């Protein structure tokens, strides 16, 4: 009887508070880290980044590796899409943004302050993948043909445009079923950017962006949705990011470069395309159709956005340390997950960009052993 | 509620009484303020969405609702909500067509069934359907239902009904992946519990006199229900349907995972589509505020609220009216609806 | 109120035709029950089977890892959900109970009708709208995605549930109890807090459980307000992970390892919700028995 004095609601409230307290007091850290040299002293602090889905596997790998250097540097990267990365960077709700497409002029003018750095972190590519019986990897295609496929002008695999580039290949008389991304993605932005450059008809009818109105074809979500769509359909074709296509077991096309030769995507051919990169990054900076010999035409890069004028010392230090590491030691990890490293000279230039980061005017330099 | 004052002998001295009255007033005032806070929250919600969506309305006006083009491409931005309205309406209709007969059937079964041995566990099981989180429906739908339909149901229906002229176009199989039909089926499963719960309450209040009278005349159970119970309960059943419809219109996550996310309006139900909640969920975090994209999504959210508002009002009116007409317990039956919605 | 017996011309004996119709009708009812139960069984079976395969120590002990690294888990999501739902409970339970008290004890006027109607509307709006609302209000204002914002978004959903359910439960407490308390000289507010509320205690607990079961599984509001986190986060003002959110992301990912974890998360969600719902129902039955 007396117990009712407090009443059940109070007990519930107490339980709830206990739950919250337990959750909040749980300070156990993350996964186990093995050995590795730490930056003797500075442990790093938690950061939040968001944006490009293309960069997700790479940044998450880097994040885990960097924990061995600075165990406190819990870098939380959420792949909400390039548009999301720009938006959250603009709203200043994240410590760094990630985007596959450089900031455009209207996005720049929408920023709260114009003191930021924008630098690429790795190279990738978009490939044309297909599932046609009897046709192996290495089908030769040029930009105009591929544009026409996605426009719906070319509808059969044995179309003259395809056959003329591939003498000796047995192309079946079956329809081409194109698959595209239904979600917003930097991969789409790069691909449609290239299509726009290759085909005036594409440029005027559809244009280039993270999501466009596709004239034909079915939509699928994410790289794996597209890969699944292609592999489940005889005669299916679509575009995928290189790191994903490599493991998907689909046929991959050799695409015609500006000099007329057909180039297959590979870590080497993608690296070559990066040769044209230089600072400052403009809104039309792109490495597609690189003039370097042997460069894969539809190569892309992904950018990181950071405001230079920071106020939190620990965060600024972690930012500098992490990205310095990523641009140096981290580059050697790119190939294991099918990305390409930046050209080393360009990476050094990117480090100079990082040097602009300051806390209340005082520049932040990387903690010694991450340099 | 009768208020009885304490007997005069026990009346305490004046300061205590004043303190007591202050305590009462403070308490009542606190609960009042908090309750009004609920109303303020709704008003705030409407205002925030309207404020955010204003730019889209100003730029596109009526065309926003009837336009078929949803193009976030910078430089050629245009936003027409018709594909989403279409998808929302069609998936909900499919859900209703499937869930209403089955839901009413289950409700009648539960009501007519004598043995509590079947009735109670069954009622619990149907309510459990309401408790399953949307994302669990989504993962099951995406990995089980979509492939199943793609491999069996849809090719079969396409080959059979699909060949029938005119309506066959609805059932033409296009390719693997999510589609409107599968989304409609998932929705049907999700709204079934609320249709059942409310129908059950509505049907149960039909006066036993009606039933006994019919049975005394020698009517079979079927006739009793069809001629005696259902006509009287009809407005309430419609109300139950509208509550279910309201839920179907707003369901987000499960639909987003199985509908295929295509902004094209096509004839076939087996093609991918899109709904208003799904597009908000998919595009919201990415929609940049530099253009009109985010504003367009906020306006869609406002549309959803207004639709839900309308549906909730009408359906509650219908359900309440039926119950009152039949002299039933409005409170108990509203509790049924509430608890199911609460779990839903 | 006596209802009119419908005017049916019913012959004294039941023709075989009528009997057949009746039988078909019974079969139809049975069939609808079976059809209704099939999806439930299918879903539970699949979630349990694939979910159990993913349940292991690492699901709970390890945080998220890239898909190509073994031993990843969802620890940060479970703790994040606990924090977010905890915040939602702390805010919505007092608010909901107080609202329910108002509606039940003082609720005969026009203000009460408006409040009730508001609760009904809020119960019907899609949860994604709650997410968009709180994003605009809290995330933008505070300049960060946060567990707190997610908790507030869940409150938008849980508050009306708590309010209506509390009202229903309090109404069932007999007026004699209130009158008795008042007769003993207690002020009204003490009667409510010390007599009415505790008597309805199990019912209020049921209401809380139902609201929590709902909040636990909600993805959409959390999607727009919490951002998600690969690490355990103890600060409510920072981005936080949640189980439904993590499941939603993993489900759509390209990696089998993540998708397997998604089933594990789905199983835990299902278990949590089922336990709460069943407990709530049992409490509710016990409460109803007390009220007789």
Mind sketching the topology for me?
The complex is a heterotrimer of chains A (371), B (344) and C (292).
Chain A: H1 7-25, E1 47-51, H2 56-66, E2 75-78, H3 82-91, E3 96-99, H4 105-109, E4 116-131, E5 140-141, H5 143-151, H6 160-165, E6 177-181, H7 186-198, H8 200-205, E7 218-220, H9 222-231, E8 236-241, H10 242-248, E9 251-252, E10 254-256, E11 262-263, H11 267-273, E12 299-307, E13 309-310, H12 313-327, H13 344-354, E14 358-359, E15 362-363
Parallel strand pairs in A: 1-2, 1-3, 5-10, 6-7, 6-8, 13-14
Antiparallel strand pairs in A: 3-12, 4-8, 4-9, 4-12, 10-11, 14-15
Chain B: H1 14-60, H2 63-66, E1 70-71, E2 78-79, H3 82-112, H4 116-131, H5 134-160, H6 180-204, H7 208-216, H8 221-250, H9 253-258, H10 276-283, H11 293-325, H12 330-343
Helix pairs in contact in B: 1-11, 3-6, 3-8, 4-6, 5-6, 6-8, 6-12, 7-8, 8-11, 10-11
Chain C: H1 16-54, H2 57-61, H3 75-105, H4 110-124, H5 127-142, H6 147-171, H7 175-183, H8 188-199, H9 201-217, H10 220-225, H11 243-251, H12 256-291
Helix pairs in contact in C: 1-12, 3-6, 3-9, 3-11, 4-6, 5-6, 6-9, 7-8, 9-12, 11-12
Summary, kept brief:
The complex is a heterotrimer of chains A (371), B (344) and C (292). With 371 residues, chain A is of the alpha/beta class.
What does this structure look like?
The complex is a heterotrimer of chains A (371), B (344) and C (292). Chain A has 371 residues and is α/β, with parallel strands linked by helices. Chain A contains 13 helices and 15 strands. In chain A, strands 1, 2, 3, 4, 6, 7, 8, 9 and 12 form a 9-stranded mixed beta sheet that branches. Chain B is an all-alpha fold. Chain B has 12 helices and 2 strands; from the N terminus they run H-H-E-E-H-H-H-H-H-H-H-H-H-H. In chain B, helix 3 runs parallel beside helix 6 and helix 7 packs antiparallel against helix 8. The model of chain C has no long low-confidence stretch (mean pLDDT 90). With 292 residues, chain C is an all-alpha fold. At the B-C interface, helix 1, helix 3, helix 4, helix 5 and helix 6 of B face helix 1, helix 3, helix 4, helix 5 and helix 6 of C.
């Amino acid at each position: 009887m007396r117990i009712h004095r407090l009443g059940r609601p109070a007990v519930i409230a107490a339980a709830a508070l206990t739950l919250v307290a337990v959750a909040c007091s749980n300070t156990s850290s993350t996964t186990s880290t093995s050995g590795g040299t730490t930056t003797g002293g500075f442990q790093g602090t938690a950061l939040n980044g968001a944006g490009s889905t293309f960069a997700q596997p790479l940044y998450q790998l880097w994040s885990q590796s960097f924990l061995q250097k600075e165990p406190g540097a819990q870098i939380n990267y959420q792949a909400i899409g390039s548009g999301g990365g720009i938006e959250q960077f603009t709203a200043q709700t994240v410590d760094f943004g990630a985007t596959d497409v450089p900031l455009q002029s209207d996005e720049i003018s929408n920023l709260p302050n114009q003191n930021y750095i924008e630098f690429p972190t790795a190279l990738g590519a978009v490939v044309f993948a297909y599932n046609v019986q009897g046709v192996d990897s290495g089908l030769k295609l040029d930009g105009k043909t591929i544009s026409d496929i996605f426009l719906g002008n070319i509808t059969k695999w044995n179309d003259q445009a395809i056959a003329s580039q591939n003498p000796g290949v047995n192309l079946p008389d079956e329809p081409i079923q194109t698959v595209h991304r239904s979600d917003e993605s930097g991969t789409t932005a790069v691909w449609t950017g290239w299509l726009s450059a290759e085909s005036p008809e594409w440029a005027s009818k559809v244009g280039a962006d993270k999501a466009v109105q596709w004239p034909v074809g079915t939509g699928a979500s994410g790289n794996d949705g597209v890969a699944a769509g292609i592999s489940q359909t005889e005669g299916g074709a679509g575009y995928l990011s290189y790191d994903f296509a490599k493991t998907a077991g689909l046929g991959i096309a050799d695409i015609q470069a500006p000099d007329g030769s057909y180039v297959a995507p590979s870590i080497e051919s993608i690296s070559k395309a990066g040769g044209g990169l230089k600072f400052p990054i403009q809104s039309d900076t792109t490495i597609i159709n690189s003039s370097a010999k042997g460069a894969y035409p539809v190569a892309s890069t992904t950018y990181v956005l950071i405001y230079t004028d920071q106020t939190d010392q620990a965060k600024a230090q972690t930012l500098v340390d992490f990205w310095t590491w990523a641009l140096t030691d981290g580059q050697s990890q790119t190939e294991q997950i099918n990305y390409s490293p930046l050209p080393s000279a360009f990476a050094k230039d990117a480090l100079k960009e990082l040097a602009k980061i300051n806390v209340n005017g005082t520049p932040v330099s990387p903690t010694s052993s991450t340099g | 509620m009768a208020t009885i004052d304490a007997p005069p002998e026990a009346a305490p001295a004046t300061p205590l009484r004043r303190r007591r009255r202050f305590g009462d007033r403070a308490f009542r005032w606190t609960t009042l303020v908090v309750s009004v806070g609920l109303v303020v929250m709704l008003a705030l919600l409407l205002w925030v969405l309207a404020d955010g969506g204003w730019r889209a309305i100003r730029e596109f006006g009526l065309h926003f609702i009837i336009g078929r083009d949803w193009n976030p491409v910078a430089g050629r931005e245009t936003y027409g909500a018709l594909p989403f309205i279409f998808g929302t309406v069609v998936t909900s209709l499919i859900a209703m067509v499937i869930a209403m007969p089955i839901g009413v059937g289950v409700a009648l079964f539960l009501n007519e069934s004598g043995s509590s041995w079947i009735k109670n566990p069954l009622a619990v099981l149907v309510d459990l359907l309401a408790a399953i989180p949307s994302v669990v429906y989504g993962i099951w739908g995406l990995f089980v239902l979509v492939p199943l339909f793609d491999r069996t149901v849809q090719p079969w229906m396409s080959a059979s009904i699909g060949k029938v002229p005119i309506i066959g176009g609805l059932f033409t199989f296009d390719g693997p992946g999510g589609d409107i039909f599968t989304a409609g089926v998932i929705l049907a499963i999700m709204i079934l519990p609320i249709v059942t719960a409310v129908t059950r309450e509505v049907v149960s209040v039909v006066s036993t006199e009606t039933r006994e009278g019919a049975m005394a005349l020698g009517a079979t159970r079927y006739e009793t229900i069809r001629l005696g119970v259902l006509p009287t309960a009809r407005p309430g059943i419609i109300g139950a349907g509208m509550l279910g419809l309201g839920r179907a219109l707003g369901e987000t996550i499960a639909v987003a995972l199985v509908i295929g996310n295509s902004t094209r309006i096509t004839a076939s139900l087996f093609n991918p589509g899109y709904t208003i909640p799904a597009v908000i969920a998919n595009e919201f975090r990415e929609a940049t505020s530099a253009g009109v994209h985010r504003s367009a999504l906020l306006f869609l959210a406002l549309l959803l609220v207004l639709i839900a508002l309308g549906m909730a009002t009408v359906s509650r009116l219908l359900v309440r009216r039926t119950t009152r007409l039949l002299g039933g317990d409005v409170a108990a039956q509203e509790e049924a609806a509430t608890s199911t919605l609460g779990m839903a | 109120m006596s209802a009119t017996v419908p005017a049916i011309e019913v012959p004294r004996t039941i023709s075989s035709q009528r009997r057949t119709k009746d039988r078909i009708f019974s079969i139809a009812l049975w069939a609808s029950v079976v059809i209704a139960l099939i999806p439930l069984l299918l879903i539970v079976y699949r979630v349990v089977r694939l979910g159990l395969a993913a349940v292991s120590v690492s699901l709970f002990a390890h945080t998220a890892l890239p898909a190509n690294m073994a031993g990843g888990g969802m620890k940060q999501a479970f703790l994040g959900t606990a924090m977010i739902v905890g915040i939602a409970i702390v805010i919505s339970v007092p608010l909901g109970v107080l609202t329910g008290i108002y509606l039940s004890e003082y609720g005969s006027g026009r203000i009460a009708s408006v409040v009730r109607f508001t609760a009904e509307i809020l119960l019907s709006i899609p949860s994604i709208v709650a997410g968009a609302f709180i994003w605009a209000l809290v995330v933008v204002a505070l300049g960060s995605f946060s567990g707190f914002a997610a908790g507030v978004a869940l409150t938008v959903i849980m508050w009306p549930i708590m309010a209506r359910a509390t009202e229903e439960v309090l109404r069932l407490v007999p007026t004699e109890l209130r009158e008795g308390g008042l007769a003993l000289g207690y002020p009204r507010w003490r009667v409510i807090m010390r007599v009415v509320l505790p008597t309805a205690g199990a019912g209020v607990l049921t209401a809380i459980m139902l609201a929590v079961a709902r909040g636990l599984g909600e993805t959409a509001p959390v999607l727009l307000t919490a951002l998600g986190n690969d690490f355990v986060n103890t600060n409510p003002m920072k981005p936080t992970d949640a189980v439904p959110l993590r499941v939603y992301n993993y489900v759509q990912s390209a990696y089998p390892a993540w998708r397997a974890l998604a089933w594990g998360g789905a199983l835990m969600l299902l278990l949590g919700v089922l336990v709460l719902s069943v407990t709530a129902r049992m409490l509710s039955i016990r409460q109803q028995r007390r009220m007789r």
